[in-house]
Amino acid sequence: MYGYEWTEENGIFRLTINAKIQKEIRPVFHEELDFFGMDQYWDYPKDTTAPLLWAEGVRRYVLNGVCVAEAQGGGFYTKPTIKRLTEERLKLVPIDTDRLYEVNRQIMLSLEQKAVQFIQTQYEHYLPLGFSFVCAFSGGKDSLVLLDLMTKALAPKDYYVVFSNTGMELSDTLKTFVDAQKHWPGVRFKEAKCHMDMEESWNEFGPPASKLRWCCSVRKSVPTLMLLSELTGKDTKAVVFDGVRAEESLRRSKYTEVGEGVKNIQQVNCHAILKWSSSEIFVYALKYNVLLNNAYRHGIYRVGCKVCPMSAKWQDSLISFNYPDEVKSQLRMLEDMTLFAKGKIDKKYIEDGGWQARAGGKILKQGENRVSEEITATSIVFRIKNARQNWNSVLPIWGIPVDDDGKRITVKTKHGNFEMNYREENGQQIVSISPFFQLDRFDISTLRSIANKTAYCVGCKACTPQCPTGAYQIIDGKIVIRANRCVHCYNCCTYTDKGCMVAKSLFVRGENMENPDKYRNFGFRQSFYSHFVDTGVDCFDLPDQDKVLGKDQYKALKQWVAESGILKIETKGSKKVVLPELTVLGNKLINIGVYNPFGWAVMWANLAYNSIVVNAFCLNIGVGETFNKDDIVGILKYDNSTACDHAANSLLSTFRDSPIGSSLMQGIQIDKDYYRAGWEYPHAVALLYALYLYAEHTGRKSFTFSELVNAHSNPDAKGISPADIYGIDVKKFREDVQGLAISFPKHIRVSFVANLDNIILEDYSSDDIIDLAEE
């Protein structure tokens, strides 16, 4: 990926490895300037298809390296405005795109040759392995450039070009697909469509969100794979060449050029232009007259769905104003959602992207928890209401019923035989499975997924391509398991959280009735805590001349240290009052000091239980995820958006200004976003402390590892797994727990043998565990 530098020629930049400029760039055409009425201020031709200038970083209009105007504002309901940075009446002339290519010929030829060779190499590697080949087509600039490269690398019969028509495409994108078939005659074009129409899927799932992008699978990837299976007449094994580029996002910047099983177990994704920049894409496209989607002429810089949870306000605005009739239905559904959640249509919430941060079904009319779970000494019991499927139809995923006396069913699984009771009562399906102690974490996880599929499955077919044998099918909206083909790999249960995309989208975590805004917009800063440690509980009653913090800062600090377990909290009626008295833990933590990450880890564990915003973060933001303020606001269950906004600001400040963000790696700031890397080398005593907290909150010193790590899936769970608190991969956490039993045999015993995964804690308190850090 090269940067660029401006030359003295009109609109011409030079690609170079040492460039100071490495921004996403796009050409600006007269249609975009007309939209903003710029012909009142600038002179430019309207009878040309060539670009007239460039835009850097989407909104900054650049003429020969000088920013001459900048777009501001915008949203679904608000048109952006242009701020001119020069009063001069500019005269724009078309950019010579042939000259642009000529200046960059050597670099471009090298990029083209490498891309063509990459495509050919992957074809030669996977062809003998029985794979089919697809060029993914979206109608955007990247997929069009990729297709042009594909035509240079392979013969037309070697691959299919598959347009995944999500049903949410712009009319100009649909036209581009038609035009592409004329532009590249002889190439095999196919169109994949979801069997559900757009409104039906939105009504079933709720609008997609940045953390709930069911649309990509249900309406895009799955129809493509199923189409390919029909075309080839065999189980889908496909190499998909796509136009993904690293420049587009932080997540994509971490991709490798070949990804096996990343999106689907039967699919290999090859990113032939992964390292191309937008400047290189446009140099190529403009030179070779590669068909360009007309949407780019309106200033839309990334072609995709009309209403997308990953879109920015600029994109939303230009689509809404240039294609008003095409976004009506989806905007209406977003408005209906806010009407249900807020009692009014909240256009500001929609325009500010609040809907994009949705993390569950709380704000949805259709959001509900349909599965409840009870674990007894002998069995696990599921109660399923408003079920869309029948439990017995889905059960063969786990095992085969081999004996049925009408009351009790014996189920043969690869982990042994289990007894199951099934009955229907008051519109519920009630299932009891025993003996519970023989169920390992894989069994329990699979059973929970089966319960969710029973409750929520609408036949979206997202699970179908996950099955390597074709055993999992959807027929007339119902799950059908071909038992003679099922190998019980559980891929259909593990490809997404809860085993069902609808369940994940509609699940409602326990309501937070309490106001999360307790910190006056201030985080738990290390400097604040240092002041508290230096002055003790008298910190909050210092004479004015000795105070180093503001009034609201002291109030925030008191709340943070109380919820960290350092100050006592007394419940008076319905209110919690912070007392100016140190707890046993508080005395110990003050002695540990301000700069020891262990102390912060202990406080973070307590905050996970006592702070509404920290609790929501630990349970909803996974390890390895990128997040921002909107994401935090979206996971808070409180009706006052301002309060949620303030709480999110306080949490992000905590990450920036304390070791919790950097040392514990819970929130590492990357530009405007944050990244939860998770605690890479967790302190053993901190983990043990968090386990004892779990025991104290659940009232049990003995529990299973499966129960522990799946606590976040149980809306009635009273404890939080240390893996969720500190952001630790479950496999690594299991190893950590085994290590604790070796290091602290007097305090913890574990039995990870065969199907047993029991954890037993001894008769100590969490406060006692802190002393082990000194030892």
Record field, number of beta strands: 29
Question: Strand pairing plus helix content: what structural class?
Answer: alpha+beta
* Radius of gyration, CA atoms, in whole angstroms: 29 Å
For the biggest β-sheet, the strand order reads 10-9-8-11-13-12
Describe the structure.
There is one protein chain. A six-stranded mixed beta sheet has the order 10-9-8-11-13-12, with helices on both faces. Strands 14-15-19-18-17-16 form a six-stranded antiparallel beta sheet, with helices on one face. The chain has a five-stranded antiparallel beta sheet with strand order 3-4-5-6-7. Strand 6 and strand 7 form a beta hairpin. Helix content is 37%, strand content 19%. The protein is built from 28 helices and 29 strands. It starts with a strand and ends in a 5-residue tail after the last helix. By secondary structure, the protein is of the alpha+beta class. The mean pLDDT is 90. The radius of gyration is 29 Å and the shape is globular. The relative contact order is 0.07.
Give a concise summary.
By secondary structure, this protein is of the alpha+beta class.
SSE blueprint:
Blueprint: E1 3-6, E2 13-16, E3 25-28, H1 30-35, E4 53-56, E5 60-63, E6 66-72, E7 81-84, H2 97-103, H3 105-126, E8 132-137, H4 141-153, E9 160-165, H5 171-183, E10 188-193, H6 198-205, H7 214-232, E11 238-242, E12 258-260, E13 267-271, H8 278-287, H9 313-322, H10 324-342, H11 347-351, E14 371-375, E15 380-385, H12 391-394, E16 399-404, E17 408-413, E18 416-425, E19 428-434, H13 441-456, E20 472-475, E21 478-481, H14 491-494, H15 501-506, H16 526-535, H17 551-563, E22 567-572, E23 575-582, H18 584-592, H19 597-610, H20 612-620, E24 625-627, H21 629-635, H22 641-657, H23 659-662, E25 668-670, E26 673-676, H24 684-698, E27 702-704, H25 705-709, H26 722-726, H27 730-743, E28 748-753, E29 756-761, H28 766-770
Helix pairs in contact: 2-8, 3-4, 4-8, 9-10, 19-20, 19-24, 21-22, 24-27
